[in-house]
Every structure is written in structure tokens, then in C-alpha cells.
User: Fold this.
Amino acid sequence: MGILAGSNTNSNITIEHSEFALNGFGDGYSHNVYINHIDTFVFRYNYSHDPDIGHALKTRARHNYILYNRISEENGSGSYTIDIPNGGETILMGNLIEQSANSENASIITYGVEGLSNPIADFIAIHNTIVNNRPTGTFFFISPNTNLFKLYNNLVLGNGNYLNGTPMTLDSLANLRRTNIADAQLLNPATFDYHLQATSPAIDMAADAGFYAAMSLTPQYRYEHPQQVGARISIGAAYDIGAYEYTGEDCVFSPQISGSIDVCNGSIAQYSVPDLLGSTYIWTITGGTILSGQGTHQISVQWDDNTVGTIDIVQEIE
Assistant:
């Protein structure tokens, strides 16, 4: 067992930047990560892989936020890759999810299969890349009493049944399904590198998923291996389907600058752009001097006397 959390409905658990691997006793009851009945579970920027006849991730929490992870069975013999057995308010966004050829169970992602005992039964799956390396399988196994299953912009690859179960409300748009994994034009799926190539049919094909409650369903980040996270920026006509955005070698753009436009002679002013993970910043000033912050998202500038100054920035995301 990697992590086993007991039941405490007043408890909140957050796990970030962690690795869980090779857990399980081979009995099907022990898992990489097993969260029992708590209030809120946040699982982000993690790497859970190679379980031994167990789940890579299992949670019974009332509220689940599973964001920007790599959850993969790889060479393991796992059961469900992700199991949410009692439902709950669940956001599954920006994840890399893979079922091994050696998996003991055909289902990849399950929701409510042990009964929807949690108060909310809404399952939101947005911008995930899901790969089945098993000859058969089921990508989504959903309780028929699920109130809402919202399924947008997922890249779903490999053999198997797409959806088992009929939720009360199914809101599905702009998901890309390919039984031949190679058709998706991923960088190197054999080594679990699911970045897009320039020829991928997923590029610029996503739809606006809007909001769930007050949470934006536009991905802000991307998982970067191992256990890291970077900013995700759309540079095309629309976002790309799946967990990654194709940007070529690098994404270079000029963001909007915040700060004072009219300043007094010799004054010092602050300027900034959004702070995006994985970015580098190059500021250019005329008519003034950068006092601090070059290379970051925020600088301090002392302007010269009796001159017109300019300020520009180039932001690059690897």
C-alpha cells in the first residue's frame, strides 16, 4: 500500500508532486493511493504507476479534484486505473491516464460502481489523454444513477468500449476517439510521452467547456514528467484536445503588461505580466533602467528625465 487514508468526513487531503509505484499485495484490495470517506481530496502534479493488481488511484471523497497527473499502469498489472466507487463531485482534468497491457481489469476509469453514497453525483472529465494498451477494455464505467457526466476535449486512444453506463445527463463534446493509438500522432507513446506532434488531429479541435460551479474548465497547466507542472497556453484557433498543447519547440508570445503608463520624471514604477509556470521573461526598456526583476514576471523601472520611454516583453514557455 502506498497511501491509505482512513474515514473522517471533516478531513481534507492534498497530495502534490509525489510518486507512488509498485504498491499492492496482489490481492486486489491494496492500491497505490486509497482515500476513504473524507470531505475533499486534491491530487495534482503526481505520478502514480505500476500497481500490483490494485488501483493506481482510488478515492471515496465527497469532492475530488484530480488535476494534471500522470496515472499509468505501464509495466504493472493493475486493476482499475482510477476508481471513484461512491461518486462525489469529481473534476478529472489535464491527466495522462494509461492502462497496461497486463491489467487485471478491463475498466480504466470507474465512477459509482459500489453505489453513489456521496451527496453529489457529478463527474466532469475534461482535457485528459487516455490510452488503453490492453487488447480490450472500457474507458468509462459509469453508474446509471450519475446525475451529470460532462465529457469534453478528451483524447481517447486504443481498443475497447468507450462508455459503459447511461448517466441521467450526458454532456459530451469534442472528444477525439481513435482505436489505433498511432493515428493520434503522439510524440512517443511507447515511452508514455503523449505530447502532440505537429500532424496530430487533436490540434485546435477543442470546444469551450465553460464552468462547473465556479471552477473554470479551461486547463491552466500541463503535467511535466517527473512530478512537475508547467503553464498551458493556447496559441492556435482553439485549445488542443487532450492533456497537452502543441507549441512546437517553444511557445513565444508578448503578453499584456500591467503598470503605470503616465509617470513623472525620474520616478520608479512596477510592471508585470501573469506569472506562468515554466516561463522565461525578457524585458526591454528604452528611456529608463531596470532596477530589479529581469528574467521574472515583474520588474521595477526607474524612468529617465525628459524623455519618452517604452517597455516590451517576450515570454517563452518551454
In short: The chain has two domains: 3-248, 252-317. The radius of gyration is 22 Å. Residues 252-317 form one domain.
